[in-house]
Give the backbone structure.
Amino acid sequence: MTGAAATIGGVASRRTPYPQAARQLLRETLFAAAREALQRRAWSEITMADVATAAGVSRQTLYNEFGSRDEFALALVIHEGERFMDGVDAAVREHFDDPRAAVTAAFETFLRTAGEDPLVRIVISDDGAGGMLPFVTTQGMPVVQWATARLTATIEEGWPQAPPEKARLLAEALVRLAISHVTAPGEAPAATAASTSELLGPFIDEALGTSG
């Protein structure tokens, strides 16, 4: 009986607390409502009331969670970016034995995934009037910092010998280059990824301790 109780208690202790789970569900619902709205209208035409109504909550609930319209838009961009970074993270981990291959695979994964995503296509086709593009360009510093921190952690895990500052510098360079290529695409993802890996190759070797 004691063992069963302990097991049940152990399972219960690993469950997400209700307030945290409820908040996560709220945020996911709001993001889904905004993403759906963006399929039909530009961000500049979508109000917080529109998002709240589509999500089935009050406008005040939305403001209580995010504070302002800009904060919500930034949170939405980062939320969508999580999916891309999951793919990038997996690509890097598959090539922990080859840093240059890791960079090539990660870069190609990001560009290809971003190019196939409907919301990203809406953002990059923005001519400046849509209102969403600045959150990944001129106002995109929080996005750059978030993505850099996540990629730095993955690099440090795979190459613990790398000096922290060089790992961060490499991660930030990759993030900024990726955003640049997504917002102003040129060659196919595979060709762009190969060129980027070749360009950064010497620094990759030095930073990750694989030269010589």
Remarks:
- The CA atoms of residues 52 and 59 lie 5 Å apart.
- The domain at 1-67 is CATH 1.10.10.60 (Arc Repressor Mutant, subunit A).
- The longest helix spans residues 69-93.
- The chain has two domains: 1-67, 68-212.
